[in-house]
Amino acid sequence: MEMQYVDNILQNLELSNEDLKRVSDTLLTELKRGLSVSTHKTSNIKMFPTYVRDIPDGTEEGTYLALDLGGSKFRVLNIHLKGRHCNMNSEKYDIPQSIMEGPGEDLFGHIAECLEEHIKKMENKQPHLHLGFTFSFPCEQRSLTQAILTRWTKGFTCSGVVGKDVTLMLREAIERRKSSEIDIHVIAIINDTTGTLMSCAHRDRDCRIGLIVGTGCNACYIERLEEVETWTGDREPPDQVIINTEWGAFGDNGCLEFLRTSFDRKLDENSNNPEKQLFEKMISGMYLGEIVRIIASKLSCNNIIFKGILSQQFETPFTFKTKYISKIESDSPGSILKTKAVLEKMGVLNPAIEDCQTMQKVCKIVSTRSAHLVAAAVSTLLNKMQRKDRTVVGVDGSVYRYHPHFKSMMEEKISEMTEHPFELMLSEDGSGRGAALVAAVAARVEAAQSK
What we know:
This protein is α/β, with parallel strands linked by helices. Helix content is 41%, strand content 19%. A six-stranded mixed β-sheet has the order 1-11-10-9-12-13, sandwiched between helices. It has a five-stranded mixed β-sheet with strand order 4-3-2-5-8. It has a two-stranded antiparallel ribbon with strand order 6-7. It is globular and about 75 Å long.
């Protein structure tokens, strides 16, 4: 009887191929709205042109800096390129909560300070350094070096940044701390999806899609200019541009209400951005653990698990981390060792075998729904692009990287939803390496144009 109740609770999280086909069809409509001049402004999926027109051709050389900002930590990297070879050194820096929620000037000042610290440690410093900036938040790109923040996500609420050019704010912060020894030229700004695409394209030129399934979820892909009505740049070859979909906002206009459950709605109500990023909230690492916690709380309140008693940890929003899902799903069939360890960490003393098995079931259905939704979205891009050749999808992000079954679940479902050949490629340091590669390609083009 109890397992029947659990199944009834979870059944709305189980998506049929018919459900996923409806998601794909709806997404395609929204993608086209974002590319259209007449509907772009009212579209939830913004389909921003990145102004990145080309991928690495293997001739890029030199030392480049990269900044990678997309969460509560950011990285500073120095990358040496020589053809297809890449040597890289990087360092991570924390962003305190007070800075994430404080004035924007403080955020960029902190970044500039860490950048200066990193440069001081560099060996063989050059007097002039090109820098690529990965800024993984929704932006309207107006050129390769100009990006206007449209809204904060991932827990950031810094004032005085929305509606501003983040490249300019970084340049001004660097200028305030400028060393007379080194001149830093911010030559490109991208988001993490573009960085992932560029990093994988450096390894395989068939890479045409960049995907992030981590703290957030987003994708970019290479689109023909004739499909991009919003394009205002030149029409010189190559006749293409990388489009940053910002598909995390898919569903913000109500088109995914058929999919959302009471658990999704409760999570949304308690989030710091209600009614925003609704697709992302069903998929990404910032939210999956919380969905599991909300389900577990409901089951406990109905005396199905934990003898009806919730620990303080389970009562506190966002304490059940998404990494716990990956750990629970790493248990071998029939084992509960890792599941038991997670529950004990969450304050459940001596959890019953049945409790562990129920939590395994909850985690599996939540992560499976996530993987299948991403698969439906990727298949939409593959079907839209209509490439006959194999398309490499560069993927990065903690959910994809650390969940033991996420990749295989995605591969299986994409194969069911498209006939176009594809390969999922894990990106190695995609966000940072990609920013340096965009800077290198831009420097190559700039040098060719100046001859």
